[in-house]
Amino acid sequence: MSSTTNTTDQDRQPLAGIDRSLRHPVMLFLTAGAAWLALAILLGVIASAKVHNPGFLSRHGWLTYGRVFPAHINALVYGWGMQAGFALILWLSARLSLNECKASGTILTAGLVWNLGVALGVTGILSGNGAGMPWMEFPGFVWPVLAASYMAIMIWPFIQFRVRPAGPVAITQWYVLGAMIWFPWIHITANVLLHCLPGHPVMAAGINAWHKSALVFLFFTPVALGVAYDLVANVTGRPASGTALANMGFWSLAIIAPWAGMQKLAGLPVPYFLPYVGAAATVLLFIPICAAASDLVRPLWAGRATLAAEPSVRFTAAGLISLVVLGVALMVLNIPDFTLRLTQFSLSGYGFDTLALYGFFSLVMFGAVYAIVPRVTGRGWYSSKLIEMHFLFSVYGLLTVMLVTLVGGVMQGLSQEDWKLAWPAVAAVANPFAVATTFAWCLILFSNIFFLVHLALMWLRWGCGGDSDAPPRKTGTPHDGVGHPEDAAAVSDSLVDPT
Amino acid sequence: MSFRTFILILAASFGAPWLAIIVIPFFKMRALTPIALNQKADGATGIFFPKRTGRVADGARVYAENGCYLCHTQAVRPTYAGHDMHRSDWGGLKDDADRGDTRRETCADDFFGEKFAQIGVARTGPDLSNIGRRVETVYAAGGDPSAWLYAHLFNPRDLPQLWQSTCPPHKFLFEKCEIKGNPSADALKVPAGNNREWVPDADAKALVSYLLALKKDQKAPAALNFAPKSAEGNP
């Protein structure tokens, strides 16, 4: 591979080999991730329905709100989010460093161990053995399993980066490399300090709040931005090495994001600077978000006439819009002594999480999935209608979530702060927004059933063949560092019998 | 940029906050110096140590496993961060028969005996920092506080004044048993069928013991008092 240069003709054959080598690892993570996503959203619908209808499915302990909700969020984070991240990191690293994936057996095994860990964790939460720390509710024995399988999966793209051919490094690779290093650092720090070392209980809550913020802004955000940069470079033909704005986006994220998170503890007995530093960093996150989003949206906007029909571009653009909305919301709603008091303990927190995990990260992942799966499986998408439905229902669901976050969270916060208002009246303010959240999750669930079925059909290779009436160029975006729609067919054609 | 430079800058940009807001505060906080009481300001000597009774560790586990922290906070913030102190019974009691206004902010010693401070995610329900105090003196005044909490956990909407509550029922924390001899002391008043009764299981007992022990309104030392000097003594 190392002799490959960047010309189209010479690229095509190695890229087909790289795709072939990635088929099983990438599809395992995507399909298992999509299954976890569907389960997570189903649990989310159940949990959300219980908020305004507490008698719903309340007979059994494992279906109580306090267990279903953590199962929902942990399945979303570790089942879907992390695995979608793995798939895209493996794909991008192999493609950008022009190396075939030579360890798919190890990666598949480690991937199964990861899924086993998540399954044990979710079962542990539902059976009443959760650890009771937000976003870290898996029972205490699960995190080392996840850490070990993470290492076994992620060491390979890391090695691929080290043996890449000489040349400029794409901005995508910096983002992906950053995420690969930050995740274990965050995961191990938080879990060791909270599970293994006795500490002060309030500081433990602070570390937990930091862990959640760091996971969002130092794993999910960089992975999704890396993916978006790669997609934009491919569909617009812009150089992948990145502009000054792109570099500023990356480094400001790297410098600001690790400080964020502890604003959750404003007014609590921790050293006073911690919540203020957390709030300041969260407000300043607007800088990297704005830099990266504007850098990515401009070329897409310039080419909107030809690109608007591409499903992967639409998903990516919608994801970037969610990111900007998230950035604005974080900036406006986390100001200490002013708006933070309204959002610290209101619906807004869950709204931020949903916007980040679903609105931004997942939509960008979907965009990438629609572009790369035809490459990996050598099949075109079965139906562009299914993709359309997935997009529309996701976007309508997200618009509802934004409404709940921005309006509902603040209204709930305002009534909480109005101490003359009796508590039952305060609690009632949140009810209509809880109904809206259930509605949103129903739309999102509906959209993702289409996604899961579609993806499973593709892995089973029931999609359209490369030369049939629905070729990849119709529904999949060219995504191979070459940028020719015809190349998709060429890649498919070369995959005669990969098994 | 070379790989080496990249790793070095990345390690520095993450390592600095990692040390400054995680590792150093973690080790500092776990060796907090107890606050010495001052005879002149506090009327006592020794160290400040809010006593906690009941099955704290056990009950905190049940509280965590069943996700109570998703809807209930245990955080009474100073007024610069929120208006929790103004609610008449969150930070303590506004008019305690013996002690007057007992309201105060959450302090670092309030979570003694717990591994993780359940400060909470959202306030779908009320703050529980002083739920034990509130049940004893307000909700179940003159009655049995444990019985009130058992009935509330069994079905929060059974109690007429809480018909609007969205708290889920926790019937899975109760067992339906045959009555042998006299009914159990803890049995619920809810009918359970012929010669049967609902009794709390071990988890429910631990949880109720923990909730009744949530009384974070002991007088805090002057060193922790957020009220300005001029406001002292005023309601």
Can you characterise this structure?
The complex is a heterodimer of chains A (499) and B (235). Helix content of chain A is 74%, strand content 1%. With 499 residues, chain A is an all-alpha fold. Chain A has a domain at 7-167. Chain A has a two-stranded antiparallel ribbon with strand order 1-2. In chain A, helix 1 (8-52) crosses helix 18, helix 2 (65-96) crosses helix 13 (348-377) and helix 11 (311-332) runs antiparallel to helix 13. Chain B is mainly α. Chain B folds into two domains: 14-47, no CATH class; 55-231, Orthogonal Bundle (Cytochrome Bc1 Complex, Chain D, domain 2), CATH 1.10.760.10. Helices cover 30% and strands 4% of the residues of chain B. Chain B has helices at 3-29, 39-42, 56-65, 131-139, 145-154, 202-212, and strands at 174-178, 196-200. Chain B has a two-stranded antiparallel ribbon. In chain B, helix 3 crosses helix 6 (202-212) and helix 5 packs across helix 6 (202-212). The longest helix of chain B is centred in the first third of the chain and has 27 residues, at 3-29. Chain B starts with a helix and ends in a 23-residue tail after the last helix. The model of chain B has no long low-confidence stretch (mean pLDDT 92).
Give structural attributes:
heterodimer, A: 499 residues, mainly alpha, two-stranded antiparallel ribbon, 1% strand, disordered C terminus, B: 235 residues, Cytochrome Bc1 Complex, Chain D, domain 2, two-stranded antiparallel sheet, 6 helices, 30% helix
